[in-house]
Known about the structure:
Elements: E1 8-13, E2 19-23, H1 26-32, H2 35-53, E3 70-73, E4 89-93, E5 103-107, H3 111-117, E6 122-126, E7 133-138, E8 141-146, H4 155-166, E9 171-175, H5 178-181, E10 189-191, E11 195-197, H6 202-208, E12 211-217, H7 227-243, H8 246-254, H9 259-265, H10 287-293, E13 295-299, E14 309-314, E15 321-325, H11 329-335, H12 344-357, H13 361-376, H14 382-385, H15 395-406, H16 412-415, H17 419-425, E16 434-435, E17 438-439, H18 449-457, H19 470-473, H20 489-506, H21 518-529, H22 535-555, H23 567-571, H24 586-597, E18 599-600, E19 603-604, H25 606-611
Helix pairs in contact: 1-2, 2-20, 2-22, 7-21, 11-13, 12-15, 13-17, 18-20, 20-22, 20-24, 21-22
Amino acid sequence: MKGGYIGKTLFVNLTDGTIREEPIDPGIAEKYIGGKGYALYVLYRRYLKEYMSKGVSPRDIDPLGPENVLVFATGPITGIVGIPSPGRYHVMALRSPLTGSVGSANSGGEFGPFMKFAGYDMIFIEGAAEKPVYIEIVNGHVDIRNAEDLWGLNTFTTTRVLRERVRHRNTSVACIGPAGENKVLFANIMNDEHRAAGRTGLGAVMGSKKLKAVVVAGDHQPQVANVEEYRKLVAEMAERMRKNPVTGSGLPQYGTAILVNIINQIGGLPYKNWQTGYNPEADKISGETLASKYLIKRRPCWGCQIACGRVTRVQFGPYQILYTEGPEYESVWALGNDTGVMDLEAVIKANHFCDELGIDTISMGSTIATAMELYERKLIPEEDLEGLDLRFGNPAALVEAVWRTAYKAGFGAKLALGSKRLAEMYGAPELSMSVKGLELPAYDPRAAKGIGLNYATANRGGCHVSGYTIASEVLGIPEKTDPLTPTGKAKLAKIFQDLTSVVNSAVNCLFTTFEIGARDYARLFNAVAGYSFTEEDVMRIGERIYNLERYIMSLYGFSAKDDTLPPRLLKEPMPEGPAKGHVVELDVMLKEYYELRGWVNGIPTPEKLRELRIEL
């Protein structure tokens, strides 16, 4: 196998306890890289095709049934010393319990590199156990162990117990908390205590499999194909990352929450369930405020020079927490601005509970915000809330709603369904700010039209990191585009989506793309893995991955009808701020986007699939 890869894939069947391994296929790796791309290929070719050959419709696959398959995946860049931000891994599932589409999430920390050090590039988990178990992998030795004593524990305690059991210097734990055990539809997978594979409810998939954790440890070091070129390249890229104002200054100093004031200033920071995009009090929960009042130190992911992670504390008061991490920008916004809670201490506490209990902060905050507007409109009867005072801006209700959701206590059982199902339950589906069932992140597209097109066409649902056009529309990277015009945004969204597919298959941190582009990734792949890629090759691989994922979605029934936005963003002009009067002109952008993609009705044509050499 070429450099960068360990060269092995692990398959663990929890139903019958079988464990097997296979070599990485060099041909598949060259076409799909690794990480998300390789995992998608195997999910389709090995599992979906087999189900269909037996007469099982993909639409009948139960996301919380044993037939769902969960994948932990790394790529050739993961765990390579010197590469900018190589400490990530990707998680996928055949189906998401929240959306019904492909499950997809990404996380940093140490788990990705240590999984490779343990001896595997990817882990496919099949079936379901009868009783709680965890998977332990140490230097290629794999065991399925009893986890009944761990069931019910929070993510922090689970991590510490399992680290103590393994006692290896390179040990990392990916686990679920009570939210995953209770199958909260947006439960996440937590690793290294405060890092989250947060979106699409993959923690609930682990819970349905009775899989409490995956523990990895080892000393296997991936090799580099061209050492001399690799050394020159990583030195060059480290210097460029250091000089870049975003990766070298803004993110290290203030973390991702530096975006609070930046996005608010363009009128795109959604406030009170997206009723507006400007909040004059936003600085109360900004990265600058977090750094000045609550920051203890920075904490990087494995091998990362940016170190955007925050270690924080609240020393006194009702929301005291003496050691925690975050909150990140999306969490600050979802738990704070979106719910109208301007008490940063309450937001820090709610974020801590989400990490401890295993809950996606974006879906959690957004679902609470939806409930608050439903309550404001008198659509939720008081008796349903069982004492939970869901007024916008209520910090105590925010914190209480998190733990109620994790344990499905009282109204928490309804919150655990996510904003789409909650809003439908109370007769106002338009109040769920979601796409394809996945709650939207912290950028109002009425103030940045390109991100609206990305939301609508993002394969996993309402997602900003599928194609982060904000880099161009707001930050001017790689070049500044006008955020308030739909012109040119179809091409922009496609480029960002294709490149992001490559980054998630590398697997590397998306923040590197503030400085490093497709040409640089080609050079990285060539030096590390020994390929001979051009910039065009890299973008074509990204396009292939994006189209394969979209084709799989079509098997689940998704099409152009699902490439839309909440009515509020299409019909209600922004009421104030720099984007006042704007809506998202989605139809105009979508038409051009589909033409660029070669899609009909939101689905790749057979000609497009053949052109991209996608084997069906």
